[in-house]
Specification:
The chain has about 240 residues and is α+β, with helices and mostly antiparallel strands. It folds into two domains: about 80 residues, Pseudouridine synthase (2-Layer Sandwich); about 130 residues, Pseudouridine synthase (2-Layer Sandwich). About 25% of the residues lie in helices and about 30% in strands. Strands 1, 2, 3, 4, 7, 10, 11, 12 and 13 form a nine-stranded mixed β-sheet that branches. The longest helix has 14 residues. The two termini are about 30 Å apart. The relative contact order is 0.23.
Length: about 240
């Protein structure tokens, strides 16, 4: 497996590069790809593993010849930290859509919460949420969901290796999850809320690790712009 570029390694445009990027809030994964592609005058660029716009953290971007490495990175284990709120439900399982149901969660204890989380550790089937980029007959599910429609989705096997409750200040919960490729954390949070019979929605999410690669070694968009602009001006 190739060594990705961090803030301390040189950028090679001609041979391509594997970039570790700390994706900022409200950027889509394609926004990052588009910025890199524009700066490199249309060179081939892509990412391995989508992050939602409201999620931050580690995004692996490949350029040039290194785009052949996508599969090496896409299948790696992922680690996330984040927060969710008990007592509410939304169609998107996060705060991107309006709250449609509220329930009393005051009786939920830390012990119950931790116990519910542990019940999801291991291999299981998970249905992609309607508000996701998963495809149905060639169309992303979120496009169908925004029209107020719901379609049947096929469950896929995922694995939760670790699910740790980091903090609990009712109704808000801090957590850490280590999981396989294809896991929807929003769906996991929704399922925990269902198990506790009070509902829950994701309120923040950050990808901290992909396989052996940590967000602590990633570069910011500002550092990326500086590195790519410098490379472009040298040609």
């Amino acid at each position: 497996m190739m060594t990705p570029r961090t803030a301390h390694t040189p950028l090679s445009v001609d041979e391509g590069q594997v970039l570790l990027i700390d994706k900022p809030l409200n950027w889509t994964s394609f926004d990052v790809v588009r910025r890199v592609r524009f700066t490199l005058n249309g060179k081939k660029v892509g990412h391995a593993g989508t992050l939602d716009p409201k999620a931050t953290g580690l995004l692996i971007v490949c350029t040039g010849k290194k785009t052949k490495s996508f599969d090496e990175y896409a299948g790696l284990e992922k680690e996330y930290t984040g927060t969710f709120r008990l007592g509410i439900q939304t169609p998107s399982f996060d705060l991107e859509t309006a709250v449609t149901d509220s329930r009393d969660s005051a009786s939920v204890s830390l012990e119950q919460l931790a116990g519910a989380a542990q019940q999801f550790v291991g291999k299981q089937l998970q249905v992609p949420p309607m508000y996701s980029a998963a495809k149905h007959k060639g169309k992303p599910l979120y496009a169908i969901a925004r029209k107020g429609k719901t379609v049947e989705r096929q469950a896929k096997e995922i694995e939760i290796a670790e699910f740790e409750i980091l903090s609990f200040t009712p109704p808000d919960v801090g957590f850490r999850v280590v999981c396989s490729k294809g896991t929807y954390i929003r769906s996991l949070v929704h399922d925990v809320g269902t198990r506790l019979e009070c509902g829950a929605v994701l309120t923040a999410l950050r990808r901290t690790r992909i396989g052996p690669y940590s967000v602590h070694d990633a570069i910011t968009m500002e550092q990326l712009d500086h590195a790519l602009s410098g490379t472009k001006s040298d040609r």
